[in-house]
Structure formats: C-alpha cells, structure tokens
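[Meeting: bench + compute handoff]

Bench side (C.D.) handed over the final construct sequence. Compute side (W.E.) agreed to return the predicted structure before the next meeting so the bench team could plan truncations. Sequence as handed over:
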Amino acid sequence: MRRAWIVAIAAVGCVLSFVLLLVVGVYLVGGNVAGGGSVGLAKGSVPAAYKALVQKWGNLCPALNPALLAAQLYQESGFNPRARSAAAAEGIAQFIPGTWATHGVDGDGDGKRDVWDPDDAIPSAASYDCELARYVKDVPGDLSQNMLAAYNAGAYAVIQYRGVPPYAETRNYVKTIKTLEKSFAAPVTRLDPSKQAAGAIAYAQSKLGTPYLWGGNGTADQGGRFDCSGLTKAAYESVGITLPRVANDQYNAGPHPEREELLPGDLVFFSDDLTNSRAIRHVGIYVGGGYMIDAPRTGAVIRFDPIDTPDYFGATRVTEDGAKALPTAV
C-alpha cells in the first residue's frame, strides 16, 4: 500500500512538473499550431438539427457565410426556435411580424411561411441578409458589416451614413456577430495561444483538492467550492476575462482547435451528444499531456483527469474579444 502511495505521489509530481513546462512553453509552441479562419462550421457549434440549413443557406450570397449566419442566429436567439423578445421578435432568427410578413420565405416548400419553424426562419434570415446586402452594395466599407448593420438598423440608415450608422446598439450588434463568427468557423490557419492561459491554469492548479459543489462559484459562503463551469469561469476571471456561467455557452468564447492542436489553457468540453454544443455538460482546463484540471462531480475533488474519453466533444481557445461578444443570456 505504501509503495502504491509513493508511486502515486511521484506520478502527480511528474504531472505538475510537466504542466509547468507546458505552461512556460505555451507561447513558444503557439506559432506552430494550425487553426483560425472561416471555412465551414466548427464541430458541433451549430445544433445538428440546424447544421445543414446553416451550411446551405449561409452560402446564399458573397456577403454571407455559414459561420456568420450561425453567429447571427446565436446572437439573436441562442438557436431557440421558440424565442420571443420583449419587442415581439419571434423565432430562431427573431423576426418582428412586419418584417416577416414581407421577407419571410417558405424555405421547406410546404406551402407555409412559419416564423416558428427553423426550416423557414433560417432560410428567411439568409435571404433577408442577402437582400439587404444588395441594397447597401454601393456603400463604402465592408459589405458584410454593412449588411449586418442594415439587419439591425435598416438599409436606409446604412446608406444615409455611408456605412455602419453611429448607433451604439447597431455598432455593438455588428462587432459582436463578426467576433462570434470566429467561434462558429472551422479553423483553417494558425490559432494564437491566449496570453492569459498560464494564469488561468495557475488559478485552477491552486484549487486542486477542493471538494466539488453543484452550482459552486468559489464564494466564501460556498466554502470556496466549485462545479466544473464555475471553476473555469473563476480561472479566467482571475486573469481579466469574464466567461458565461454555463459550459455550453463557454464553448463559444473563441475558436476551436483540433485535438492534436491543443495548448495548455484551452477549455475542453464533454457531451453525450457529440453533434450539438448546446448539449455540452462538462468542461475543464487543458494542462497538456492529455490531461485537464476539472471539478468532476459531487463527491469528488478538483483534480487532474484524462481528456481522451468517448464523450470528449472539443475545445475552445478563449479570447478576450470572444468572451466579451457572448450574449449575457441566450
């Protein structure tokens, strides 16, 4: 028994040393990692029920692409086909009734235009985007940004101001969706490592051995305990990045490296449905060597766990802009 403990302690020591080496090296190896870009959709970033629609209709015109359309739908409703806003905007694409009456299309060819049916609403969003792009095609500046501004503020405002109008809501809308686009796109070029990655790992490492608490945020009244997403949120908060509270929203806080491209500090996610990021149920912080630090479950403590399990979903390289762009509630 004693020998087993000695071996276990030595193993943990080796892992910790390995982590330190990887954390120090995160900036050195980042330049050799593939990722980034905007071709196709990132794994599971769009719920499986809507992926084919977004991929097809996201290529409707040059001003649009599937990742941009996905980011817009996520910003509008969080992919909720039953969403309804205080301003009476309806469905997954949040059309107001007047706009739907003139711009809704029968996307599935069943003879009905139903704002609550994603088979109609997603094609309608893409069709309306592209129609707006045609209206503002002669306006100076980036066509996609002008198109999004027209979706939010109207084409007349974009034409009047010769670009994105000086409305705080519209400018934030455009910036948010263009930033989120990177989270929904399948990377095709190098992904830079996060400057805050080492600090986030150091924070998580300082919590090793802390008992798990469902809903735990590490506050004093909770005994400093965490659940999985509470730990990752606190780790990145310690280095100045605010993440959403739940794991499936944290997935959208940046681009998505492949398994072989992981760097220490990446968030790693797990799900019983590997086609849908909205079904993610667990998250940890990757430390290298196939291991993460996570708060696994009730009765366990924050610890090192392997990531190569059948429920491994994917990873996110957290960026400050990506985290800031996430809606507070979706």
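W.E. noted at the follow-up: The longest helix spans residues 2-29. C.D. will use this when planning the next construct.
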